[in-house]
């Protein structure tokens, strides 16, 4: 079914193939839905008082290393390489290219990597600002992200947009934030007239130790997802995630809490993430490719213009 959906999106130029699975252009209807979803989220969070941060799709390599991403997800990471040679090295590169060889061997790893999740640049930025205020901090962040997992599933893209709200503070402040968003999510899905359910989840940790880490994450109920059928009903897609990191990022970046009962303690963090492409695909999958035929509640939620 995901193959049929992907071909239908290609045929209508809603997604534009590039020759690489999971790397597609976006057509006008697709982008219009993303834009209106962003505006809907803006309206929903307008009273939250979050600080807005927007980052490019690249971040310092040291941030990825210090955050521990390579320990858990080395298979998903994307590094940027650049040519730094002289004219002779350039001639060798061109000769390799002409012969059909691997010209990338002539490049060197840059100090920038592709951003794997929108929240990762937030933590060093917050740490650099000094101690947290007593109420902690709430950040509204968005970025293009990259994860190396090529697939024909249209909901599993290699480059995609992620919108997040990140809460940093005491354990009580952070857990309250995460729990409140889990309740909020059902109303968000209902406004889009999408069939959704909340379920316990785990991240795809790498290697033999990955199963132990995933089991521990589930046992401690650190990750939940809002699941909506996109590619198939049997394997619904995580379109929102609700993650409690405990003190992982607080330890990595020495972020200190200042709230009641937590002054000076390592801060805890949590984030709620919106997969913008996945939510868009869910709308197109369940309501079709003709906005004039969409149900009135959905058109109202997206503030879609009248036909």
Automatic annotation (TrEMBL):
Keywords: Ligase. The lineage of its organism: Bacteria, Pseudomonadati, Pseudomonadota, Alphaproteobacteria, Acetobacterales. It is an enzyme of class 6 (ligase). GO terms for molecular function: ligase activity. InterPro entries: aa-tRNA-synth_II, aa-tRNA-synth_II/BPL/LPL. The keyword Nucleotide-binding does not apply. Its EC number is 6.2.1.n2. This is Amino acid--[acyl-carrier-protein] ligase. Residues 145-291 form the Aminoacyl-transfer RNA synthetases class-II family profile domain. It comes from the Bacteria.
């Amino acid at each position: 079914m995901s193959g049929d959906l992907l071909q239908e999106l290609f045929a209508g130029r809603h997604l534009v193939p590039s020759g690489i699975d999971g790397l597609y252009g976006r057509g006008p209807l697709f982008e219009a839905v993303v834009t209106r979803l962003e505006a809907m989220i803006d309206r929903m969070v307008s009273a939250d008082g979050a600080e807005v941060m927007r980052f490019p799709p690249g971040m310092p390599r040291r941030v990825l290393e210090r955050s521990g991403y390579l320990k858990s997800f080395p298979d998903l990471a994307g590094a940027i390489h650049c040519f730094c040679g002289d004219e002779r090295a350039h001639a060798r590169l061109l000769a390799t290219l002409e012969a059909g060889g691997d010209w990338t061997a002539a490049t060197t790893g840059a100090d920038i990597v592709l951003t794997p999740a929108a929240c990762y640049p937030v933590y060093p930025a917050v740490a650099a600002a000094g101690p947290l205020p007593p109420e902690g901090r709430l950040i509204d962040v968005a970025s293009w992200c990259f994860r190396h997992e090529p697939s024909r599933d249209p909901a599993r893209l290699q480059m995609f947009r992620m919108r997040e709200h990140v809460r940093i503070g005491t354990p009580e402040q952070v857990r309250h934030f995460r729990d409140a968003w889990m309740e909020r999510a059902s109303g968000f899905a209902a406004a889009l007239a999408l069939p959704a359910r909340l379920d316990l989840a785990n991240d795809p940790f790498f290697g033999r130790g990955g199963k132990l880490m995933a089991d521990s994450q589930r046992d401690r109920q650190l990750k939940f997802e809002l699941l909506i059928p996109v590619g198939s009903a049997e394997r619904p897609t995580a379109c929102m995630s609700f993650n409690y990191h405990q003190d992982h990022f607080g330890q990595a970046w020495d972020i200190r809490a200042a709230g009641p009962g937590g002054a000076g303690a390592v801060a805890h963090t949590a984030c709620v993430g919106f997969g913008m492409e996945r939510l868009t695909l869910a709308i197109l999958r369940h309501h079709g490719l003709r906005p004039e035929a969409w149900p009135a509640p959905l058109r109202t939620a997206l503030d879609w213009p009248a036909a």
